[in-house]
Here is the input.
Amino acid sequence: MQTNLRGRDLIGDLDFSKEEVETVLDVAFDLKRKRALGEPHAYLRDKVLAMLFFFSSTRTRGSFEAGIAQLGGHGAFIESNTTQIKHGDTAKEIGEIYGRYFDGLAIRHCDWQVGNQYINEVAKYSRSPVLNMQCDIYHPFQCLADLMTIIEKKGRDLRRKRIVVSWAYAASYLKPISVPQSLILQMPRFGMDVVLAYPKGFELMPEIEAEAAAQARKFGVGFDIVHDMDEAFRDADVIYAKSWGPLLTTTDPVEGKRLQDANQSWITDARRMALAKPDAIYMHPLPADRDIEVTSEVMDGPNSVVYDQAENRLHAQKAVMALTMC
Ligand code: CP
Here is the structure.
């Protein structure tokens, strides 16, 4: 167990070592138990977290705000359009100034080729820890909650369990690529064989795919990329199928939509779930395009763990806040 996380940022999934992530999980399970028993756990009394959003949210906002309150602190919700950022406050100003007001700065900024750079720039000037609530490259807190959920359903020993991280068709908008990127980076460290599936044109960042392959080699697990959803689902233990935009191919929304629409058959339905192991779990970070990305039959079915997964955002985030902001 590595307990020296005080003051640390969490921006990329590999910022914390495997042992440090194990510590986060231990604390998260303890906090989940404490909440279930109604045991007080006000480890961050009088601490204040700034939650700066450049992008909408249901779960991330709710779980960070509830989490910091349950830890005895306060969360300040700050929508970027209500600040002076558009009138000149730079990332340096936010880091320097908010880093002095607040005990932690959590930021969501998903703009392609902007968000991660912005969060790192704030962190450079902040004296308080900076937590990435999702950027264009990573969604580390989603991934911690996902890992926690997989452990709950499949046990601590995930060695040789097969997780499929698959693209799925969506009609609503071109979704960020951060969730699949975080998953392929983190899961090999915990012994899972990773299968990444997407139609041509929906590649992830080459440096992230290369790093995921390197992690897989280091931890002696598989990392395969396939372009057929049925092939990917065969014998899987965990199905994690969600949409993302073809951002490495085009940033033009019209061309992006055209590419998405050419792959409408990429849906998680009962037929495809039957290709996986009978006890395979279905995961999605939400929001999902119901009956487009995934049928309601699967999403509301016995193999779906999407609500436990959403709940675990709360516990995983409380663990990181308690460890970094104390
Ligand atoms: N999964 C997730 O990050 O949800 P929100 O976009 O609602 O925060």
Summary: The domain at 142-306 is CATH 3.40.50.1370 (Rossmann fold). The radius of gyration is 19 Å.
